[in-house]
């Protein structure tokens, strides 16, 4: 049929063929008065996509089109849309709908709405399905669609829509700024942005990594210094020194949690933003009673934080480091293989959607 009745996406059929993509026809939700259709120009690859297609977060039935760091052009807007118009360059992240009526939504916590709809592999209340950004188009509610500032290049703007807000929101909600000492654990797709946000907000920022080879990158990204966790007793000089630690690492099941929590000041946060496949190591109450650290976590951020993030990215020159690949069936599979092997430095954006979907 084709747009606007159907979209075309690069899809996988199930966890056993997670790296085998094919084009498939996708049926979007019925177009609503507050909806925006985005003709996609770029979509970045997120570890969440990898966790999903490999079945790490559970089984699914294909064809599944992932991708939730989307930048493109608004090509249709609902009659009640107020702040965006056809032709605007816009972005969509990992959420496309919430009720906007419950107490959480009214308290600017729509990213925790019990009725929220994720960008893909999620079902609307009418039974229709949301489809991701490895596609010709995307349909999203206006509240979860953001105008991209002219100063942000498309391929670099895309990762801000998920990796950006995931690392920015907990920092600002914790009051990170001048006079605060912040550690960022795991310098990858999330962590390299976490370092930049913390530094841009004015905090004394440290990179915490098991890879000494990343030290130069960490300093370029805003770290005052680099703490290498592969060194024995790495935490000893840093006990109770950090107001906030942002954990972006995926291998937390291998962590000595007592060591990591020891570097947090009493009542300070060791805050999780990655969602690994495997559970955390077993911990005793004594770890918490001894130094009073808090183990916390968060999911995305709210609309106002996304607006502020985009402004800060422009004002303080915060940019994801991206490798760009033209989207295709083979490129999608190759990109996921590279993501699984942690080969990107530090984010991958799939581009050239015009060519892939035969647009002029």
UniProtKB/TrEMBL annotation:
CDD domains recorded for this chain?
Answer: CAD1 (cd05283)
One term of GO molecular function? zinc ion binding
Cofactor(s) it depends on:
Zn(2+)
Checking Pfam families in the record gives: ADH_N (PF08240), ADH_zinc_N (PF00107)
Q: In which pathway does it act?
A: Secondary metabolite biosynthesis
SUPFAM superfamilies per record: GroES-like (SSF50129), NAD(P)-binding Rossmann-fold domains (SSF51735)
Domain annotation Enoyl reductase (ER): ranges: 16-344
Q: Which key words are in the record?
A: Metal-binding, Oxidoreductase, Zinc
Q: Which InterPro entries match?
A: ADH-like_C, ADH-like_N, ADH_Zn_CS, CAD-like, ER, GroES-like_sf, NAD(P)-bd_dom_sf
- Record's keyword annotation contains Oxidoreductase: yes
Does Zinc count among this protein's keywords? yes
Q: Which SMART domains match?
A: PKS_ER
UniProt record similarity statement: Belongs to the zinc-containing alcohol dehydrogenase family.
> Which PANTHER family is this protein grouped with?
ALDEHYDE REDUCTASE
Question: Protein name, please?
Answer: NADP-dependent alcohol dehydrogenase 6
